[in-house]
Specification:
With 899 residues, the chain is an alpha/beta fold. It is built from 36 helices and 20 strands. The strands form 5 sheets. Strands 10-7-11-12-14-13 form a 6-stranded parallel β-sheet, sandwiched between helices. A 5-stranded parallel β-sheet has the order 1-2-3-5-4, sandwiched between helices. A 5-stranded mixed β-sheet has the order 16-18-17-19-20. It starts with 7 loop residues before the first helix and ends with a helix. 49% of the residues are buried.
Length: 899
C-alpha cells in the first residue's frame, strides 16, 4: 500500500546513502543491510514485508549479459524458415480438408524460445558416446500447441520429409498407415503412443506437463541418491503457456520443487498474455502474478520482457517513465498494442506523456512496430537460459514476454481469434514472407511450398553442427533397455499359492509379497514403492525400516516413534516415495518411474498403492497421459469396491474404477479375490513388463477385508491371467469336482450344511453358473453353498479380469473365433449370474461373449455409496449371498418356463 511521503528530503537521504553503499561495498553488502533491516522490521511488528513483484523490466541487466556464442544472423534465418514451414503445414492441411485444425499462433510466439534452446542448451541423448551422465541428455517438455514448429525443425534436420509434413493430422490416410511404408501421418500434439520414436512426453492435456516435469526432475535426484544412475549435469526443461498456469496441476507442486532444491529444473513460461478466448489476465498482469507465485514458492525468477531494441530506450529514460508506464498497463491493453501497428503504439503508448514521447523521437513507425518483446530476442533469451542453468539451489522459471501470433501481422498477431487461426489469404502470406525475409517467390508463397535449404547451405550446416555438439536430435524417444530378471514366483509368494485357509486381506498379501520382492538382489533395488499418505493404513509401516522413505535431506530429527519396531525412517537412499496428500503428485512420481526404461534406459518397477476411489476418478487424466507415454508398472487400487470400505461413505467407496480402467487400451485391470490369484497376476505382469518389455501397465484392486484364503489350483495360472478360471462346483451330495477348493479349511462346508432349507427344493436337474470377482466372490461362494443345499448343481467361476475377458471377446468377434470366457463356461450349465462390487456395467461388458442360449443376470453396486457395515451395504446393493441366491432361483424359474 502506497502512503504519502511526509518527508521527501529524508527519503532522498536514505536513497543516496543506499546508493553509496552499493557503489562502495557492492551488492552483497547491500543485501546484508536490507536483510538486517527486514529482520528488525519484523521484530518491531510494523506490518511490512518486501513486495514479491519487481518492476516490469528484464531481470538480467544489459551489462550482465554474456557474449552471444552463436551466429545470430543464421539463427534468425533458421527460425524464420521453421516458422514458415510450420505455417504452411497447418494451412495446407486445412485448405485441403477444412476440418483438421492445428495451431500457428502458439508456435509463432514460442519459436525463438525453442530455437535458442535447440541451438545452445537442449542436450540430446548421446548415441554411443562416453561423455558421462550428461550424455543421457536433457528432458524437454514441449508446449503442445507448438508441435507444428517441432515438426518443421525435424524436416530441416532430415528426420521428417516433405511428404510427412503434407500428412499433418492425417494419421490414418497417410501412406505409411495404409501400406506400412512411405509418408507417416503426424499427430496433433506430442503423443509417444502415436509416434513412439519421436515424442518423449505427452503434454497435450494442459497442466499434466508441468507437474510431470517437476516429478521427473525429482526422480532423477532419487536415482542419483540411490546410486542407481548418475543424473548430475542433466536438466529438465519445460516450455509451457501462461494460460496453462491456471491449471491446478501446474501450480500444485511448486513448493516441492523448491523444497527439494531442484536446480536441475528450468521452466520457460511463454507469456503471450493470451489464451483461446482472450487475455489471460485482461485487467491485470499475468507476469506479475506468476512472479509472486513462483518467488513465494521459493523459485528463482527471471523476467525476460524486452528485447535489445528497448535497451537504448531504457538507457535514455533517466526518470523511470517506461517502468511507470508498464506498471500501469494491464494485459488487455498490452494485447491491443501487439495487435496494432507502429503508428497506433506511438500515439497510444508513447503518447501518454511528454517523457515517453521524447523517448520515441527519431524512431519511425516501422521501428516502433518492430520493437521486440524479450521472448523474440535470441540474444536476450540466451542470456536468460544461461543464467538459469548456472543457478544453483533452486528451480528456475523464466517468464518470457511474447506476442501470440508473432509475425502474422493483421492476419492474427495479438488478435482475440489468433489461437484458432488456420487460414491466410494471399496478401497475408506475402506479408509474412516479407516480414521474415523468406527466400520464397510469390508463387511458392501462394502455393504454400515447403522450403528446405540445400544440404551444403550455411544454414543447414550450422543447424547440424549445433545439434551434434549437443548430442544429437530431439525430441527423440528411446525404448532400448536391458531386460530385468524376475524371481521365481515360489520364492516370494509360495505362502499365497498354498494359503491353507489362513485369513488375511489381499492388501496384506500384497504388502507381504512386496516386502519379499524388495529383498531380491537383482529386482529389489529397482522396485519403487509409492504412497500418497496411507502407508500405515495399508500395513506398509514395516517397510520404513526395511528400505526407508526417500528424502534428499536424509533425516535431521529423531522421530517420535524412534524406539518402535515400525518407526518412521527417512534416508537419502530411501526407496519409498511418500508423496503426502497429493494423488496428482504420486501419479506423477509413478509415471516418472514407470517410464524410466525409456527416459533413462534403466528399467524400474513402481508400485503405487492408493484408495482406489482416488485413482481413475481423481487423476484419470494423468493416468491417461501415462498410458500415452507407454508406462510400465503397477497401480494398486486398495480398499476397493463399494461395500468393502464399510464406514467411509460416498466419496471413498469405489464402484467404477474398473469401468474406467477398461477404457485405456494398454491398461490391464484385475480384481483378484484371493492371495494366490494376486500372486499369479503380479508375476505375469512383472515378466510381461520387465522381461518381455511390453508397453503395458497393470491396475490391480485390493481389499481390506480379512477372509480365509484358499490354495490356488495348480494349472489355473494361464486362465487366471486371461481373466477367468473354474473355482469349484457344488452339489447337494458333495462339494463338487474340487477344481478350486473351498475358501477355507472346512468351515465353509459346515456353514453350507447349517443353512436353512429352501421352501421349495430345486429339480434334480437344476444347474446354475455363478461368476464373481474380488470381495464379492466370497458372497458368490456362500450363495453356491446355499443353492447346493437346496438341490442345485452350482458351477462357480472366479473372474480375475472382466476387462480382459471383454477385450478377448471383441478380438474373437473380429477373428471369428470362440471367446475365451465362452470356452471356460462350456462345461457349465444353466443360467449365468454375475456379481461384483462394481457397477453392473463392469460384468455387462462380457455379455456378448457368453455362450449363446443361456440367460445372463448381472448384480452390481450402481448408485452412491454410504456408510454402514459390509453386510448392510451388500444387502442394500443386492450383491450379498441372499441376493445372489434369489437371482439364481428367479433365473432358473425363467429358464424352465422358457423351456
Amino acid at each position: 500500500m502506497n502512503t504519502p511521503d511526509t518527508d521527501p528530503q529524508e527519503t532522498a537521504e536514505w536513497q543516496d546513502a543506499f546508493a553509496a553503499l552499493i557503489a562502495s561495498q557492492g551488492a552483497e553488502r547491500a543485501r546484508h543491510i536490507l536483510n538486517t533491516l527486514a529482520t528488525q522490521a519484523r521484530a518491531r511488528r510494523i506490518g511490512w514485508q518486501p513486495e514479491l513483484a519487481t518492476p516490469y523490466v528484464n531481470t538480467i541487466a544489459v551489462d550482465a549479459q554474456p557474449a552471444f556464442p552463436g551466429d545470430l544472423a543464421i539463427e534468425e534465418r533458421l527460425a524464420s524458415l521453421i516458422r514458415w514451414n510450420a505455417l504452411a503445414m497447418v494451412v495446407r492441411a486445412n485448405q485441403a480438408y477444412g476440418e483438421l485444425g492445428g495451431h500457428i499462433a502458439s508456435y509463432a510466439s514460442a519459436a525463438d524460445l525453442f530455437e535458442t534452446g535447440y541451438n545452445h542448451f537442449f542436450r540430446a541423448r548421446g548415441e554411443g558416446q562416453a561423455q558421462g551422465p550428461a550424455s543421457l541428455g536433457d528432458l524437454v517438455f514441449f508446449q503442445p500447441h507448438s508441435a507444428p514448429g517441432v515438426y518443421a525443425r525435424a524436416y530441416l534436420e532430415g528426420r521428417l520429409t516433405e511428404y510427412d509434413l503434407a500428412h499433418y493430422r492425417q494419421e490414418l490416410t497417410s501412406p505409411q498407415a495404409r501400406t506400412g511404408q512411405g509418408a507417416r501421418g503426424l499427430c496433433s500434439y506430442p503423443h509417444p503412443t502415436l509416434m513412439p520414436d519421436f515424442w518423449q512426453f505427452p503434454t497435450g492435456s494442459m497442466g499434466i506437463g508441468p507437474i510431470s516435469s517437476i516429478y521427473h526432475a525429482r526422480f532423477m535426484r532419487y536415482l542419483t541418491h540411490r546410486q542407481l544412475l548418475d543424473c548430475t549435469g542433466r536438466t529438465v526443461w519445460g516450455v509451457f503457456g501462461d494460460g496453462e498456469m491456471d491449471e491446478p496441476e501446474s501450480m500444485s507442486a511448486l513448493t516441492l520443487a523448491a523444497r527439494e532444491g531442484l536446480d536441475n529444473l528450468v521452466w520457460v513460461v511463454n507469456c503471450n498474455l493470451q489464451r483461446l478466448d482472450g487475455p489471460v489476465r485482461g485487467n491485470g498482469r499475468i507476469i506479475d502474478e506468476l512472479e509472486k507465485l513462483f518467488a513465494g514458492a521459493g523459485w528463482n525468477v527471471i523476467k525476460l520482457l524486452w528485447g535489445s531494441d528497448w535497451d537504448g530506450l531504457f538507457a535514455r529514460d533517466t526518470t523511470g517513465a517506461l517502468a511507470r508506464a508498464f506498471a500501469n498497463t494491464v494485459d488487455g491493453q498490452m494485447q491491443t498494442f501487439a495487435a496494432k501497428d507502429g503508428r497506433y503504439n506511438r500515439d497510444t503508448f508513447f503518447g501518454q506523456n511528454p517523457e515517453l514521447a521524447r523517448l520515441a523521437q527519431g524512431m519511425t513507425d516501422e521501428q516502433i512496430d518492430r520493437l521486440k518483446r524479450g521472448g523474440h530476442d535470441i540474444v536476450k533469451i540466451h542470456a536468460a537460459y544461461a543464467a538459469a542453468v548456472a543457478h544453483t539451489g533452486q528451480p528456475t522459471v523464466i517468464l518470457a514476454h511474447t506476442k501470440k501470433g508473432y509475425g502474422m501481422g493483421s492476419a492474427g498477431q495479438g488478435k482475440m481469434t489468433t489461437h484458432s487461426h488456420k487460414k491466410f489469404d494471399e496478401t497475408d502470406l506475402i506479408a509474412f514472407r516479407n516480414r521474415f525475409s523468406l527466400p520464397l517467390t510469390d508463387e511458392q508463397v501462394t502455393s504454400l511450398s515447403f522450403y528446405k535449404p540445400a544440404d551444403d547451405s550455411p544454414e543447414l550446416q550450422y543447424l547440424h553442427a549445433r545439434r551434434r555438439r549437443l548430442g544429437g536430435y530431439l525430441p527423440r524417444r528411446f525404448s532400448d533397455c536391458a531386460p530385468l530378471n524376475v524371481p521365481a514366483l515360489a520364492s516370494y509368494a509360495q505362502w499365497a499359492l498354498q494359503a491353507d485357509g489362513k485369513e488375511m486381506s489381499t492388501t496384506m498379501a500384497f504388502v507381504r509379497m512386496l516386502g519379499n520382492l524388495l529383498k531380491d538382489g537383482e529386482l529389489g533395488p529397482r522396485v519403487v514403492p509409492i504412497v500418497a499418505d496411507e502407508a500405515r493404513t495399508f500395513g506398509m509401516a514395516n517397510l520404513f525400516k526395511q528400505v526407508g522413505i526417500y528424502s534428499s535431506l536424509g533425516q535431521r530429527y529423531a522421530p517420535e516413534d524412534i524406539g518402535s519396531v515400525l518407526s518412521y525412517r527417512e534416508a537419502q537412499d530411501g526407496q519409498i516415495l511418500e508423496e503426502g496428500i497429493s494423488e496428482a503428485g504420486a501419479i506423477a512420481s509413478w509415471t516418472a518411474a514407470a517410464t524410466s526404461y525409456s527416459v533413462h534406459g534403466l528399467a524400474m518397477l513402481p508400485f503405487y498403492i492408493y484408495y482406489s476411489m482416488f485413482g481413475f476418478q481423481r487423476v484419470g487424466d494423468a493416468i491417461w497421459a501415462a498410458a500415452d507415454q507407454r508406462a510400465r508398472g503397477f497401480l494398486l487400487g486398495a480398499t476397493s469396491g463399494r461395500t468393502t470400505l464399510g464406514g467411509e461413505g460416498l466419496q471413498h467407496q469405489d464402484g467404477s474404477s474398473h469401468l474406467v480402467a477398461a477404457t485405456i487400451p494398454n491398461c490391464k485391470a484385475y480384481d483378484p479375490a484371493f492371495a494366490g490369484e494376486l500372486a499369479v497376476i503380479l508375476d505375469h505382469g512383472m515378466r510381461e513388463m520387465l522381461v518381455e518389455q511390453k508397453d503395458v501397465f497393470y491396475y490391480v484392486t485390493l481389499m481390506n477385508e480379512n477372509y480365509a484364503q484358499p490354495d490356488f489350483p495348480a494349472g489355473s495360472e494361464p486362465d487366471a491371467v486371461r481373466g477367468c478360471y473354474k473355482f469349484k462346483s457344488y452339489s447337494r451330495d458333495g462339494d463338487g469336482d474340487g477344481d478350486g477348493g473351498d475358501a477355507g479349511d472346512g468351515r465353509a462346508r459346515t456353514r453350507a450344511r447349517t443353512q436353512p432349507k429352501a421352501t421349495q427344493a430345486a429339480p434334480a436337474s437344476a444347474h446354475v453358473t455363478l461368476m464373481g470377482s474380488g470381495a464379492i466372490l466370497t458372497e458368490v461362494i456362500k450363495a453356491a453353498q446355499q443353492l447346493a443345499a437346496q438341490g442345485f448343481c452350482v458351477h462357480v467361476y472366479s473372474v480375475t479380469s472382466w476387462s480382459e475377458l471383454a477385450r478377448d471377446g471383441l478380438t474373437s468377434q473380429t477373428q471369428g473365433t470362440t471367446p475365451f470366457v465362452a470356452q471356460q463356461l462350456r462345461d457349465s450349465q444353466g443360467p449365468i449370474i454375475a456379481a461384483t462390487d462394481y457397477v453392473r456395467a463392469v460384468p455387462e461388458s462380457v455379455r456378448a461373449s457368453l455362450p449363446s442360449g443361456r440367460s445372463y443376470t448381472t448384480l452390481g453396486t450402481d448408485g452412491f455409496g454410504r456408510s454402514d457395515t459390509r453386510a448392510a451395504l451388500r444387502g442394500h446393493f443386492g450383491v450379498d449371498a441372499a441376493s445372489i441366491v434369489q437371482a439364481a432361483q428367479v433365473a432358473c424359474v425363467g429358464a424352465r418356463q422358457s423351456a
